[in-house]
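lol forgot to send this yesterday, sorry. struct tokens for the thing we talked abt
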């Protein structure tokens, strides 16, 4: 079976897609649009990739370049998700009246962790640490046999985050 133009274009688009993905993690690789046309922009991106990853700089996608692009793509793009650090600081204590994204993340975790608790009040992720959030925190603190303060310090946050991660796995 002959290699036709449509297949060639699909392969070019595929490699461009990999390079596009890699460019988000490595700014030395120019971002190109996967259009299936191997033009000047694609050649420049391939050369930059070859230089960055110690391959002969030809601007052509030979077998070693193809394999390295796929390897790097999988390593970067399909790796474990990046952890985010949301809790403001080790000494911070989240409490009623606080607002913002950390509170919203707290509310999302509490909502998920307590979803199957029939006696627990359901809370909405509003980003505002209100009375409902205080009650949910106290319920979780009770479930984990911690002092029911309604506040969240780093230790309480970590217990909740571990519980959330365990449930989501």
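and heres what i got for the seq, position by position
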């Amino acid at each position: 079976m002959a290699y036709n133009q449509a297949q060639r274009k699909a392969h070019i688009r595929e490699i461009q897609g990999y390079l596009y993905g890699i460019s988000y993690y490595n700014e030395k690789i120019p971002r190109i649009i996967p259009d299936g046309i191997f033009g000047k922009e694609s050649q420049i991106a391939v050369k930059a990739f070859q230089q960055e990853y110690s391959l002969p700089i030809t601007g052509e996608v030979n077998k070693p370049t193809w394999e390295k692009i796929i390897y790097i793509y999988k390593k970067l793009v399909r790796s474990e998700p990046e952890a985010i650090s949301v809790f403001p600081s080790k000494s911070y204590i989240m409490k009623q009246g606080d607002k913002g994204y950390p509170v919203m993340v707290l509310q999302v975790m509490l909502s998920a962790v307590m979803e199957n608790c029939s006696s627990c009040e359901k809370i909405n992720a509003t980003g505002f640490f209100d009375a409902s959030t205080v009650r949910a925190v106290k319920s979780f603190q009770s479930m984990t046999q911690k002092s029911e303060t309604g506040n969240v310090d780093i230790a309480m946050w970590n217990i909740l985050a571990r519980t959330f991660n365990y449930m989501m796995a």
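Residues 67 and 154 are 44 Å apart (CA to CA). anyway ping me if u want another try
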